[in-house]
């Protein structure tokens, strides 16, 4: 409306859409134990693989390569691929339908993700936890199912974040082809981010075997406890010590999957006062005891190994 009169015949601008992703085949977040491997497979859709922790050895029709924390690759349709790990490794895997010709630029590429790209993946992962049932951490679950009472728009956001990620990667390839040397395909970046908060997170991760406190961390980095708590709440949505305890539990999961230590040794290495306290803390955080966690992971992997023989 302008001066009380109706504006008619206003010209619309049709936004250009380069491609559309509206169908997923799988959405997984796997915590794999050491010595895991697959017999190999191929399929007629794209598969995105991101190494969130550990190291992944990949064998395809075209090449053999190793991916470490922060690396991503995409298997193109009908590419035979198999993987193996020698240590406990966490993977995010999303497979989807896509026929756009622009995707050919991503064939045989491996990317070290930037901080911005990792943020996109993190947000997509959050929505994946919200959207699907069985949970995306369920090993070797073949089909996706809708989770009851999921948050409004979670599947829509997954599509949006996935398309954003593909666009970001395609732009990086185009920058390389254009001769720009500021964004290499493999980037040596600090996986915990930069700045004060990144330094604090790195320090906490490097000292999971200690018993850090809110006081000791704030003194170490010359920051008030109030400011420290605010930084963590704004960045990760949880408290400082809750984040530190989460790091300990994740490290405990890794050590359990690697099968190199007894539970008593794990408790000692992670600074727990006793194995009993470690068991109680682990169960409170994960809903299962360390023994139950080990049995769940290993039994599913054994069943998968038998199924692919």
Explain the overall architecture.
The protein is an alpha+beta fold. It has two domains: 24-177, Jelly Rolls (Sandwich), CATH 2.60.120; 195-302, Orthogonal Bundle (Arc Repressor Mutant, subunit A). It has nine helices and eight strands. It has a five-stranded antiparallel beta sheet, with no helix packed on it. Strands 4-3-6 form a three-stranded antiparallel beta sheet, with no helix packed on it. β3 and β4 (64-68) form a beta hairpin. It is globular. Mean pLDDT is 85; it is low at 180-194. Pfam families: AraC_binding, HTH_18. This is Helix-turn-helix domain-containing protein.
Q: What are the key terms here?
A:
309 residues, alpha+beta, Jelly Rolls, Arc Repressor Mutant, subunit A, 2 domains, three-stranded antiparallel beta sheet, 9 helices, 8 strands
Quick overview:
Keywords: DNA-binding, Transcription, Transcription regulation. The chain is built from 9 helices and 8 strands. The strands form 2 sheets. A 5-stranded antiparallel beta sheet has the order 1-7-2-5-8, with no helix packed on it.
Give the CATH architecture of the largest domain: Sandwich
Strand/helix succession: EEEEEEEEHHHHHHHHH
Structural class: alpha+beta
User: Which parts are unreliable, with pLDDT below 50 for 5 consecutive residues or more?
Assistant: 180-194
CATH superfamily of the largest domain: Regulatory protein AraC
Distance between the termini: 70 Å
- Compute the number of strand runs: 8
Largest sheet, spatial ordering of strands: 1-7-2-5-8
CATH class of the largest domain: Mainly Beta
Give the overall silhouette: globular
């Amino acid at each position: 409306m302008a001066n009380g009169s109706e504006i008619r015949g206003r010209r619309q601008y049709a936004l250009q859409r380069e491609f559309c992703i509206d169908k997923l085949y799988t959405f997984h977040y796997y915590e794999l134990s050491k010595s895991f491997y697959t017999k190999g497979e191929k399929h007629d859709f794209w598969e995105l693989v991101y190494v969130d922790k550990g190291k992944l050895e990949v064998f395809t029709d075209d090449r053999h390569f190793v991916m470490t924390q922060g690396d991503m690759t995409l298997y193109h349709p009908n590419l035979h691929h198999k993987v193996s790990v020698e240590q406990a490794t966490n993977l995010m895997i999303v497979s989807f339908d896509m026929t756009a010709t622009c995707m050919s630029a991503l064939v045989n590429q491996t990317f070290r993700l930037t901080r911005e790209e990792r943020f996109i993946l993190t947000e997509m992962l959050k929505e994946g936890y919200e959207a699907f049932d069985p949970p995306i951490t369920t090993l070797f679950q073949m089909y996706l199912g809708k989770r009851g009472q999921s948050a409004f728009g979670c599947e829509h956001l997954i599509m949006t974040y996935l398309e954003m990620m593909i666009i970001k990667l395609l732009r990086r390839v185009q920058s390389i082809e254009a001769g720009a040397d500021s964004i290499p395909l493999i980037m040596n970046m600090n996986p915990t981010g930069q700045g004060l908060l990144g330094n604090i997170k790195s320090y906490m991760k490097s000292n999971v075997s200690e018993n850090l406190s809110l006081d000791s961390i704030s003194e170490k980095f010359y920051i008030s406890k109030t400011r420290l708590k605010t930084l963590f709440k704004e960045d990760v949505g949880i408290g400082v010590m809750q984040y530190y305890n989460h790091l300990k539990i994740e490290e405990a999961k890794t050590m359990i999957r690697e099968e190199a230590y007894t539970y008593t040794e794990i408790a000692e290495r992670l600074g727990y006062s006793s194995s009993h306290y470690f068991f109680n803390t682990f169960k409170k955080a994960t809903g299962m005891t360390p023994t139950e966690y080990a049995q769940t992971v290993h039994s599913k992997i054994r069943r998968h190994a038998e199924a692919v023989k």
